[in-house]
Fold:
Amino acid sequence: MALLLEQLLNGVQLGVTLFLLAAGLTLVFGIMGVINLAHGSLYMVGAYAAAVAASSTGSAVVALLAGLAAAAAVGMVVEYAVLRRLYARDHLDQVLATFGLILFFNEGMVLLFGRQPLFVNVPEALRGTVRVLPGVDYPIYRLAIIAVGLLVALGLYVLIQRTRVGMLVRAGATHREMVRALGVDVRLLYTLVFGLGAFLAGLAGVMTGPILSVQVGMGEQILILTFVVVVIGGIGSVRGALFGAVLVGLVDTVLRAYVPGLLRQVMEGSEADALGAGLASMGVYLLMALVLLVKPRGLFPAHA
Structure:
């Protein structure tokens, strides 16, 4: 029971990390119509900036601010310099351009920091464990990630559904010319939306740094899973991104924890581990196929 609860919490923690990435990705595609394969690179930029700041200053607060600022600033520069010219172009052009950005950012990080991974310590205030149930201790840092992810989800809901800026963002997604006719600078609005998506990706990178190593290509490793979340939740839907991310996080974590053990009952250990890892990897894609079979536009489509 304790192991199951721990794995469920791990799944939720992975889910909220995926949500931070998927929320930005689905906003950019749902509102601006841009397929941004380089979204994972912004996650990597945030992680690297935080890791370097942490090693230079020893301050977790400075590392957090550096990671968020770097990701948001790089994201807005990318929107202004590259993506703004692709809004009216075919999605294939967007895919090619953003794939080129992935190569650019990866090589840039190699030139700046080398190929060796960087390791980040957990902030001192968040070290250790806390007893969540009798006999079940869980790392404080992972609980903090869950809390931050849920607070961000609440903040995004208020921003998009309850504020004037959110109203303009929603209107700009479907009636771009009308919003422009009302005197709103749609280009600036899109730059800010892209910056918000990059900010969220950077936050995910900053929080992931102490759990995983910070290394070149880390964005691509999680980008595919993020796209799965967007498809399951419904393109353009922040609510769908949250539910889809938690669902994917739980399924992926539970399958990786239990499938190899079940297979060891019927085959050798190494073979069971290899096959179990493969089956667990397939689990989220089977989940996506099942969801699309029942709801082709995802669980919570933005314009349902």
Observations:
- The chain has a mean pLDDT of 88.
